[in-house]
């Protein structure tokens, strides 16, 4: 914290070493092999949080755990977290408490997370906040009642964030269960998931499937291609910015296009590579390094393949794009991909291997019904994720105002 920052009236500027107790000498690291022999229900903690559960503890009570190395040190990141009850901690995290009557533990956690702690460890070859540096961290210190009121406000937002996270996880579990059911049993004309008690099933290379379905290789009803090396070197020049987005592996995440980091090319270059142009409802797939990340192209003539990304152009008389995308992200779809990965030093899929991916083929109308049900769950997840992001922005704003003293909670204390 800069020395020229004005201290709010009634507050102090203190070093952590003057207001905390440190219990690092009680830490005992355990490697994964040792932990595997003492599995239990007691948290084993490290720099970024709980990393395992064992059957013994060395701490019992409320403590603030602050990353020593291997943690996150930037502003608004979780450099510190609270542990209550019994737990074990390794030597990558400091174990501290605020001194009684001076510093509230929760206020300490928020104050550390509010700051850019990397400021205290610059110049190190490895980011490490050793005990001496920890003691040198400076925070603003309001009177204890004001600390607790600030904590109360921030915890209200944190509770809302945690509640939203639980809702998101619940929807994700529902989605996983539905994917397993719908992509193996399907949904009949009455909107019911099939079962072998009520419908006819048959054996297939992918296990038991409804009698009406087939199993086909993806390439039977899809054109699969990539940007050839000579095309890339001959035509691609990312220094020439244009209107066409070159889709790279970094732009494909969790079934969606992530266009926060993009490279563009002029349309005239794109026109020279017709096989690599992307149309609406084409599927793109990363096939080198992080393989199998897929997304659907949302519109015509705006996107183009870059190296290490494949285009899957479906025959829409047989396949629905969204259905295929969900299958590629299902457990069976992912297993298919992993089984096809070449045994090279870098994980990779060839175009011929992508064409060999086996996929269940329900009637087209049923594919659309399956995709519609799963997309509704995805929409609910996305809505909650946006709400969570909004809450996180609110929290950062509140931390900025309350922990700097720009906004005081004195009036709240009087009520």
Can you tell me about this structure?
The protein is of the alpha+beta class and 415 residues long. The chain has three domains: 12-141, DNA methylase specificity domains (Adenine-n6-DNA-methyltransferase TaqI, Chain A, domain 2, Alpha-Beta Complex); 145-209 and 363-415, Bipartite methylase S protein (Helix Hairpins); 214-361, Adenine-n6-DNA-methyltransferase TaqI, Chain A, domain 2. The relative contact order is 0.11. Strand 16 and strand 17 form a beta hairpin. It is built from twelve helices and 24 strands. Strands 2-9-6-7 form a four-stranded antiparallel beta sheet. A four-stranded mixed beta sheet has the order 4-3-8-5, with no helix packed on it. It is elongated and about 70 Å long. Helix 5 runs antiparallel to helix 11 (364-402).
Q: Give the CATH class of the largest domain.
A: Alpha Beta
Q: Uncertain regions: pLDDT < 50 for 5+ in a row?
A: none
Q: Which class do the helix and strand fractions yield?
A: alpha+beta
Largest sheet: 4 strands, antiparallel
Architecture of the largest domain, according to CATH?
Answer: Alpha-Beta Complex
Strand content: 15-25%
Spatial gap, N to C terminus = 32 Å
Radius of gyration: 27 Å
**CATH fold category name of the largest domain:** Adenine-n6-DNA-methyltransferase TaqI, Chain A, domain 2
Question: CATH superfamily membership of the largest domain, which one?
Answer: DNA methylase specificity domains
Numbering strands along the chain, what is their spatial order in the largest sheet?
2-9-6-7
Question: Count of helices?
Answer: 12
How much is the average pLDDT?
Answer: 90
């Amino acid at each position: 914290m800069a020395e020229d920052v004005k201290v709010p009236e009634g507050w102090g500027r203190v070093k952590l070493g003057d207001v905390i107790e440190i219990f690092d000498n009680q830490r005992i690291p355990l490697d994964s092999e040792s932990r595997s022999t003492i599995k239990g229900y007691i948290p084993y903690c490290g720099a970024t949080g709980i990393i395992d559960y064992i059957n013994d503890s060395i701490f019992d009570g409320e403590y603030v755990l602050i990353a020593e190395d291997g943690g996150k040190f930037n502003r608004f990141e979780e450099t510190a977290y609270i542990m209550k009850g019994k737990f074990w901690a390794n030597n990558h995290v400091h174990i501290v408490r605020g001194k009684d009557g001076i510093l509230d533990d929760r206020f300490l956690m928020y104050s550390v997370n509010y700051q850019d702690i990397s400021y205290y460890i610059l110049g190190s070859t490895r980011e490490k906040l050793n005990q001496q540096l920890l003691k040198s961290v400076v925070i603003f210190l309001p009177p204890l009642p004001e600390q607790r009121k600030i904590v109360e406000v921030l915890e209200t937002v944190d509770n809302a964030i945690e509640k939203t996270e639980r809702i998101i996880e619940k929807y994700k579990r529902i989605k996983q269960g539905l994917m397993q059911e719908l992509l193996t049993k399907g949904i009949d004309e009455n909107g019911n998931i099939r079962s072998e008690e009520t419908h006819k099933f048959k054996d297939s290379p992918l296990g038991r499937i409804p009698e009406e379905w087939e199993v086909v290789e993806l390439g039977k009803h899809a054109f699969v291609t990539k940007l050839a090396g000579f095309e890339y070197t001959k035509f691609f020049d990312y220094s020439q910015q244009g209107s066409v987005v070159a889709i790279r592996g970094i732009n494909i995440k969790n079934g969606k296009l992530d266009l926060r980091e993009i490279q563009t090319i002029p349309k005239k270059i794109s026109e020279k590579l017709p096989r690599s142009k992307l149309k609406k409802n084409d599927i793109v797939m990363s096939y080198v390094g992080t393989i199998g990340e897929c997304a659907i192209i949302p519109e015509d003539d705006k996107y183009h393949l870059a190296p290490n990304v494949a285009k899957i152009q479906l025959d829409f008389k047989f396949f629905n794009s969204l259905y295929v995308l969900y299958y590629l992200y299902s457990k069976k779809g992912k297993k298919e991909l992993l089984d096809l990965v070449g045994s090279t030093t870098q994980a990779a899929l060839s175009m011929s291997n992508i064409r060999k991916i086996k996929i269940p083929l329900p009637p087209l109308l049923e594919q659309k019904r399956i995709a519609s049900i799963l997309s509704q769950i995805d929409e609910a997840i996305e809505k909650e994720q946006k709400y969570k992001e909004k809450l996180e922005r609110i929290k950062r704003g509140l931390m900025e105002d309350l922990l700097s003293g720009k906004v005081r909670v004195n009036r709240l204390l009087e009520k």
